[in-house]
Amino acid sequence: MKLRPVLGATIGGAIVLAFLPLACHNQYLMHVAVIAFIFAALTASWNLVGGYGGMFTFGHQAFFGLGAYTAALLAINLGWSPYAGIFAGGMFATIAGIIIGVPVLRLRGAPYISIATLAFAEVVRIIADNLTKLTHGETGLVGIPTLPSFALPGIGQVTFSLADSRPYYYVSLMALVAVLVIVGLLLSTRVGLALGAIRDSPEAAESLGVALTTYKVLIFLTSSFIAGCIGGLYAFVVSVLTPSTVLSVEIMVQIIAMALIGGLGTFFGPVLGALILTVGLELLRAFSDWQLVIYGALLVVVVIALPGGLISLPKRITEIAGRIVSAPKSRPAADSVAISNRFEQEKP
Amino acid sequence: MDPRQALLEVDRIDAGYGDVQALWGVSLDLREREIVALLGSNGAGKTTILRAISGLIPTWGGTIRFEGQALDRLAPSEIVARGVVHVPEGRHVFPKMTVLENLRAGAYTAAAWRRQRESLAEVFDLFPRLRERAGQYAGTLSGGEQQMLAIARGLMSGPRVLLIDEPSLGLAPVIVDAVYATFGRIRELGCALVIVEQNLQRALAVADRAYVVTHGRVTMAGTSQQVAADPEIRQAYLGM
Amino acid sequence: MNIGQLVIDGLVAGAMYAIMASGLSLVWGTVGILNFAHGEFYMIGGYALYFTLVELNANPLLAVIAAVLVTFGIGAFVEMGVLRWLLNRREWELPTLVATLGLSVFLQNLALRSFGATDKSVPYLFHSVYHVGRVTIASQRVAIVAVAVIAFALLWGAMRFTRFGIGLRATAQDRDAATLMGIDVKKIYLLAFAISAALAALAATMLSPIFSINPWMGARPLLKAIVVVVLGGMGSIEGAIIGGFGLGIIESIGVALVSSEWEDVIAFGLLILTLWLKPSGLFGTREA
């Protein structure tokens, strides 16, 4: 992954998106975009671990929710500034990441990490549910203050309120850009190379002296920190928190759907997936009952027909076109195997 | 010209893994009650040929016929039902099943399942040691016993052709003797053999004919005596 | 604390955990995937029972059988329609995980759309109550344990003695060698998956009278089944059975000590502990 073009595309895209509120004054659309940007950032942080890192964790919502509650509670009970709270949320999420990461990240084999992280996230959710004195459980943690207003030269006072989504739009857009920049920078270093090796062949990577677990933990904690910060931001955007909105498995399912439909393990896949699914979900509000039915079906279809996600669509189309055009020999397709794929690892 | 019918005919097959070709125009045949050896060094393609015959990998070109009928488009389970069985390299016994259960697994196809008892009797006759160990978990057997089990398991479906991949691999010479001693008796029971071997001398001692495979192509074919006497072979493999 | 009652209650819950888990383990051990939609087969079994028993007023025994068979069929359909496309790929682990996840969401919400969110209830199949010493147990619950035991006996017998059972165990231990025996691995996968769905439905038919029927009823059984499978060892049916009963009893006693809100935390805590200390579980066949 080449850093400069990717960063360039990110900044370029952000600049384009920055003009949107100037052109369109639809508050509803702004709000949808805010949620989309937040989820894009969240998905990008998971993509670091699940896509690039090959560790299919299933408990990312725990970090998101912990960050949200931490930031909210610090602001409400101790009067902390939201931005400090967001940072604290990230740190708290990182600590949680250490607690679950250390025992679990050395596990190999896809379902084990998934199950362990899922269990962890559920424990966090149950705890949040049961500590009603602190979190108010399902009744909801209300009274979360908005982000502090500030003055911008040339524009004047910028206040955050429920009336105007535009400041939130820009803040969340900047957060998304920040996350993408961090991810991009991380991937362009030695860490990124190690990740590629780990994902494609853990055994080979290990024999080359790559300290597997160390890199896994590093990636995991970075992604947890980011998720926690995003959660903190989310708290100040929605102003009400319940365990089932920020700590539920549904969030994880959405993350996976966005990452996969966009393109797992690609840089812009998460963003594409988040944008499409968030906007799509809103468009489907007419069929509100069918939303999730379509979601689930889409997940299955994409995984079968378009495993690389929507980002791989151009490549896939040219691939299929190429196969139709060139004379088909009796050679089977490169990625399907007649009966056994295990024999292929043995010598011929 | 040998008047016996060709039981198994492999005619100019190409095959490979994924995008990588491993066999080019390989031809060989096997007649009734014959023992044919496939020789060659590591990675030459011998196992690939067996896998193409048993249906584990598809052929890209050429045909494979057994008793005159095409084999190359059939599923492995159908190939076994027709009477061609592949005993894979490395034994691959089912470790958490007993010797008896392994043998029963070998008789999985419908017709074979019905005549389990007779097959078991034949197989225990050939390999008495397996009868002694019938209740033992296959994972705890010695290498030689596992090899015998693998071969016995292959025989359970009453095949007419048995493809055996590297029967001597990792076994002590004495054990290999015992294993090879059964090949003649298997032939007598009406089953022809294709044996893939890196150990040239062993293979040529028991086989009627041999093919030498190099880099995915058949580079020599003839009777065992012819192949054994060939100066290139003698130099390459026997160091003479 | 009435230990006898706690143990009995634990055994009853455990029986159901064990049935759910053995289905999950069957598929994990044979096909090699963790079926996230397993809970939805439980749910389908529940609704199928509701429709045959309540709407169609069928005889309870027939209703149970119908529910199990319908779910068996749906399981087979899912395997053929979805999983089969993915299992032959070089990279099959993640896609199949995601596919079952997508299926789970799809089925849950399809049920929501079709049947609505309100709970449906199914009458108890057995009505008497027994008292033995200090222990009280409803005959419905006795039936649960009895059904579980019979199911396990049948499963065990099938695995040991039938052609299919041997084929399935062979496939689970060495898929490629099994292919060379003439075992049609595709059919084995299909049957394993359908049987696991049927097992989930069986659990649902027994439990639906006690808990209610709604689109999300499969979520907790799935999570519990996952915990049991990890405890007992993935791929091991004996492990699923022992782990199931074990978890049931541990939970029952644990909840009496702590409180019911923390019931799931006990299960999840055990899961994380097991994965940390002994990932292969008690009788595991697959390496972590």
Structural write-up:
The complex is a heterotrimer of chains A (348), B (240) and C (288). With 348 residues, chain A is mostly helical. Chain A is built from 16 helices and 2 strands. Chain A has helices at 3-18, 20-23, 27-52, 60-78, 82-104, 110-130, 132-135, 166-188, 190-200, 202-207, 212-238, 243-246, 249-262, 269-283, 291-305, 313-325, and strands at 150-152, 156-158. A two-stranded antiparallel ribbon of chain A has the order 1-2. In chain A, a hairpin with a 3-residue loop joins strand 1 and strand 2. Chain A starts with a helix and ends in a 23-residue tail after the last helix. With 240 residues, chain B is an alpha/beta fold. Chain B has one domain (6-238): Rossmann fold (3-Layer(aba) Sandwich). In chain B, the strands form 2 sheets. In chain B, strands 6-7-8-3-9-10 form a 6-stranded mixed beta sheet, with helices on both faces. Chain B has a 4-stranded antiparallel beta sheet with strand order 2-1-4-5, covered by helices on one side. The longest helix of chain B has 16 residues, at 173-188. Chain C is mainly α. In chain C, helix 1 (3-30) packs antiparallel against helix 8. The longest helix of chain C is centred in the first third of the chain and has 28 residues, at 3-30. Chain C is globular, with a radius of gyration of 19 Å. Classes of the chains: A mainly alpha (348), B alpha/beta (240), C mainly alpha (288). Chains in contact: A-B, A-C, B-C. Chain A binds chain B through residues 329-332, 334-335, 337-340, 343-344, 346-348, and chain B through 17-19, 22, 42-43, 45, 47-48, 51, 55-61, 75-76, 89.
What is the share of helical residues of chain A? 55-70%
Count of discrete domains of chain C? 1
Poorly predicted spans of chain C = none
Which geometry of chain A do the CA atoms define?
globular
Kindly state the mean pLDDT of chain A as a whole number?
A: 84
The most extensive interface between chains reads: A-C, 50 and 51 residues
Strand content of chain A: under 5%
Give the low-pLDDT segments of chain A. 330-348
| Number of separate helices of chain C | 11
- Radius of gyration of chain A, in Å, reads 21 Å
The Rg value of chain C, from CA coordinates, equals 19 Å
Shape label of chain C: globular
What order do the strands of the largest sheet of chain A run in, or round the barrel if closed? 1-2
Secondary structure: helix percent of chain C: over 70%
